[in-house]
What we know:
The chain is an alpha/beta fold. The chain has a single domain (3-174), classed as 3-Layer(aba) Sandwich (Rossmann fold). It is 32% helix and 25% strand. Strands 3-2-1-4-5-7-6 form a seven-stranded mixed β-sheet, sandwiched between helices. The longest helix has 19 residues, at 3-21. The model has no long low-confidence stretch (mean pLDDT 94). The protein binds S-adenosylmethionine. S-adenosylmethionine (SAM) is lined by residues 7, 36-39, 43, 64-67, 81-83, 96-98, 101-102.
Amino acid sequence: MDWVDKRERVKRHIVHNILEITRFTPTSNPVKIVVLGASDKRYIEIHRNIFREVIKMDPEMTTFDIDTHHLAGEEGIVQHDVTKPFPSSFDIVFSHSLLKFIEPERQVAVLRNSHNSLKTNGLAMHILHCVDTPRRWQYKVDADKMVSKLAEENIPCKKIVLDIDNGTEVLVTQKGR
Ligand SMILES: C[S@@+](CC[C@H](N)C(=O)[O-])C[C@H]1O[C@@H](n2cnc3c(N)ncnc32)[C@H](O)[C@@H]1O
């Protein structure tokens, strides 16, 4: 089993848990989902399959990435820097191990932009595997600090801790009716 296969299992497990805990139920058709950053082409189909399985309908998938060359030929790829406001709105925003690639002072913008792009009843989930010590080229992500910063902007954000993959934290915001 290679790294991408392992990640698929972890992603599936986390997405199932978060949608259950937040009691997310789709109210749009199609359900519009955006993934923030994908380092490998194979993730595009994996993300679609996981969400199709969980929401039990065919989602309309978009992937934003600052660099799209490695994703050429895949469906729904949009070049976009997610520290900038999103160009459209979504039912679900999903990021997995993205924030550690963003400088700490710009990390909160990703959460703010995600939340602001949500449609009514929408859900944004940002998966952090913060138990890992960041590598030399990665940044630390302080989940509690981000929750406080968002609270100052009246964006309620919850940190959900899951016993998956040696400890996973997920930052979640939801858009009320
Ligand atoms: C999200 S991650 C790693 C994902 C991880 N391998 C997984 O399990 O899905 C890395 C990707 O994020 C992209 N990225 C980094 N900074 C970004 C930004 N500011 N806006 C959009 N994409 C970004 C990179 O180009 C890269 O393709």
